[in-house]
């Protein structure tokens, strides 16, 4: 039994890697693309306005954390190397930064929709396709809905904290935005608090809407 469990975990992990790399690359590309459109080409000049995952890999968040999750069996959250943004290049620093910040989560939501359309097409035109393929695509839908909701949380260093400050600039939101490394502790407390269960209910509610619209319920 332990060998079977390890093998299944390995299969899940190997399926996770390409979808995770695709999802974080789309996320960071969206940040860079919108920033460039709004006047800040910092990310573009550094070669970060690309879908190439190698440009967005963070040693800890993209490599060590996922492998630690596989080795330990715990669900740990990974991340990509954030694209550099210089607000001084924006015509309207607050509203433009909000657009750039929201572009990342929004791109994951759009990717979730595209993957769900692909899943529907596979089920319609290739009904005999292996469950691995459909499960892989559905995992991509789940992952990107999760990333959309998770990164929208107003907790530093997530995109939602930038959006909160841009929409409501004041001393409190400025301090929250500048928590830096300590924000990660707040995030960790949130993940292991009862609020995490509420958050996952929101994620499952969104996924339920996908299934309902797709005619699966």
What does this structure look like?
By secondary structure, the protein is an all-alpha fold. Helix content is 71%, strand content 0%. The chain has one domain. The model has no long low-confidence stretch (mean pLDDT 87).
Helix and strand arrangement:
Blueprint: H1 2-37, H2 42-45, H3 59-72, H4 93-125, H5 131-151, H6 159-167, H7 171-177, H8 182-191, H9 195-213
Mean pLDDT: 87
Distance between the termini: 34 Å
SSE order, one letter for each helix or strand: HHHHHHHHH
Annotation, overall tally of beta strands: 0
Number of domains: 1
Portion in helices: over 70%
What does the overall shape look like?
globular
Number of helices: 9
Poorly predicted regions are none
The main sheet comes to: none
Q: Please state the CA-atom Rg, rounded to the nearest Å.
A: 18 Å
Please report which band the strand proportion falls in: under 5%, 5-15%, 15-25%, 25-35%, 35-45% or over 45%. under 5%
Structural class of the helices, strands and pairings? mainly alpha
Task: Label this structure with key terms.
9 helices; mainly alpha; 71% helix; 217 residues; single chain
Summarize the structure.
By secondary structure, this protein is mainly alpha-helical. It has helices at 2-37, 42-45, 59-72, 93-125, 131-151, 159-167, 171-177, 182-191, 195-213.
